[in-house]
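The material for today's practical consists of a large collection of protein records. An example says more than a description, so a record of this kind follows:
***
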Amino acid sequence: MSDRHTFHVLPEDVGLRLDRFLANRLPDHSRSRIQAVIRAGNAWHNEAPARSADAVRLGDVVSWLEPDPIPCQTATPEDIPLDILYEDEALIVINKPTGMVVHPGAGNTHGTLVSALLHHCQNLSGIGGIERPGIVHRLDKETSGCLVVAKTDPAHRTLSGRFADREVKKTYLALTAITPRFRHGTIDAPIGRHAVHRHKMTVNTNGRGRDAVTTYRVVASADGRCLLECHPQTGRTHQIRVHLKHLGCPILGDPVYGRRDAFTRHMLHAWKLEFPHPLDERPMLFEAPPPPEFRIA
């Protein structure tokens, strides 16, 4: 049965299009999927039928009726090896390699994690739509490490709620050339879309960015490199990469927020993932061993 969810517009949301507001609240749904559900009459803006182009205001209430799953028709199964950290009837946790795109998109129709999962699993949650079955959260193409995928719709809804409510603990490793001034700290700086370069995010101080918080600590530093352990408290796009640039310590190998230099990837690894199991609430902790290039002598 479909579930109805209610979201309240916060100060950082004011002025957003309604479809963009819902995309921020429902990261497991594509924006085109959200727009289709709105057109079908399954979203409400202050109890009136919603329109994608509506601008949301402080205190507005937006309701969303969870759509029925759509069978995957776009992605095709491919026999691609997977580094499986854990699997049961509800979920599967993957150590994603660098260079693998999570789901099909422009210019990336083959060799995706979704294609590998469709070959490996008999069933995946359909809530994410035809291109993103089972995908609860994402990692950038060059980011390696832990990623959880839902195999059933109830597991997907529960896991998505845990991510939205910040109940999932995420630990990343980042390699930089510059050691922060303080050995540990908190970066509390809102993030929004760059005004000119729309593919980039930036720390936004004009009141339109969304709240973003990352804590960090220095693990080791030697030979002109620094290994940082980072804990994003929020889940903004490119959050750690943007925050470390803001701190003056851009991630090595990052051509968007730093420089590629001699690296073939940006040096960010999703090291650990911790959350209650969606079926029985037992604590789950997964760890993806860091690639050799993250070691500091």
Summary: The chain has a mean pLDDT of 89.
